[in-house]
Automatic annotation (TrEMBL):
Lineage of producing organism: Eukaryota, Metazoa, Ecdysozoa, Arthropoda, Hexapoda
Domain Tc1-like transposase DDE per the UniProt entry, residue ranges: 69-212
Designated name of the protein: Tc1-like transposase DDE domain-containing protein
InterPro entries reported for this sequence: RNaseH_sf, Tc1-like_DDE_dom
Listed Pfam families: DDE_3 (PF13358)
Gene source species: Periplaneta americana
Superkingdom classification of source: Eukaryota
């Protein structure tokens, strides 16, 4: 994946983070009332007023065959339980019929955390995170996982690196690590912006495929769960269309945030 920057008209980025969505008092004919989506604060409106956010939103990513490779990264947690809803087809009044009830085993659940990266050329590697995720753990991942694997794909030149605003990412030791490697440029990333990070969608697809593939093979321990994650990640490595579509959606994602005045978008 390659990128060059184009500055937007500042008037287009005059976003008001405090803007409110007005309520509709009367429903138009043909539109049925329904409950609103429940969105957590983590996926709330972007902090457009901050300097870092404005810097990013003034830049539109235009993907071409010249420029700098961009690396997207993130951490995620995967549970041994299958959270996806099960769709059934039944007659009215049979919601609690035993034939249409999906039982979940809540006891004995466990989860693992992992870190991964991707670029336009496909998923990179994923690394299991054992224990607490702190600056020491992250520096180990950057030095021994990220740097080695990304240089296999991009042996030379400058890299643009995306990471979210997790406090660990901006620890003093992590800042020093990047300062020692000026060839890696960190993208200024706005807070509360998972809808701008395309690897979030890749992680969602990872969980979806794992659920479908191992629906009848619940892992007995964390090692088995990790093996399922690794196998599923390898399957995603071969799906170039998925990754290409995600990365090339970046211009639309940025424009959607601008047009929504920093509020939620469909991404």
């Amino acid at each position: 994946m390659f990128v060059k920057y184009v500055q937007l008209d500042p008037q287009l980025c005059d976003l008001n983070a405090n803007s409110n969505v007005s309520n509709v008092d009367k429903s138009p004919r043909g539109i049925n009332a329904s409950t609103s989506p429940q969105l957590s604060d983590v996926k709330g409106h972007h902090v457009i007023g901050s300097i870092d956010a404005l810097h990013l939103l003034q830049t539109i990513f235009i993907f071409e065959t010249i420029g700098l490779p961009v690396i997207f990264s993130d951490e995620t947690t995967i549970s041994s339980d299958y959270e996806d809803p099960v769709r059934v087809y039944r007659e009215n009044g049979l919601r609690h019929d035993q034939r249409y009830v999906h039982r979940r085993e809540r006891s004995g659940r466990f989860s693992i955390s992992c870190w991964g990266w991707m670029s336009y050329d496909g998923p990179g590697v994923t690394e299991r995170i054992d224990g607490r995720f702190n600056a020491g753990t992250y520096e180990h991942i950057l030095e021994n996982v990220f740097l080695l694997s990304v240089r296999e794909r991009f042996p030379q030149g400058t890299l643009l690196f995306q990471q979210d605003n997790h406090p660990v990412h901006y620890a003093a030791s992590i800042q020093r690590w990047f300062q020692r490697r000026p060839e890696i440029e960190i993208i200024n990333w706005p807070p509360k912006s998972p809808d701008l990070n395309v690897i979030e969608n890749l992680c969602a697809e990872l969980k979806k495929i794992r659920t479908a593939t191992y629906a009848h093979r619940r892992p007995r321990n964390r090692d088995e769960l990790w093996n399922q994650v690794v196998d599923t990640w390898e399957d995603l490595v071969g799906d170039q269309n998925l990754v290409h579509n995600l990365v090339t959606s970046m211009p639309d994602r940025l424009r959607a945030v601008i047009e929504a005045d920093g509020m939620w978008t469909r991404f």
